[in-house]
Input
Amino acid sequence: MSRAKSGPGKLLFLCVANSSRSQMAEGIARRLLGSGALVQSAGSSPSAVNPLAVTAMAEIGIDIDSQRSKSVQAIRPEDVETVVTLCAEEVCPVFLGKAKRVHWALPDPAAATGPDEARLAAFRKVRDDLVRRLEGYLGGRLEKP
Output
């Protein structure tokens, strides 16, 4: 697997529930950046990691099953160099600190309705968008499992 050659060493992904978009982004960035980077995710109203996010990520060989939802208030400003907000329809959490800010408006796949396969397709679409964006932003490439 290729690792990013450069990029933020302290990265935070934010959304509201910290259950889907930010959790998937955290898993992808950890894979791209490797163990030398501090990659976190959080939300303004944390809930639990969505099982469909876990499934979608497992399909590309990334295990996020041990990740947990956490509050943005639990994140220390000195542990963040770049904040990526991922909200589209919702009001994104605010992170106080001097970190660089990036915003990617992505729909919440947890809001998808219908049969399980249709809902999983929404997670795959957001996952694939995150992979493309993070590969471009961080300068690395994920290998296919």
User: Anything to note?
Assistant: The mean pLDDT is 91. The first strand starts at residue 10 and ends at 15. The radius of gyration is 14 Å. The CA atoms of residues 81 and 89 lie 25 Å apart.
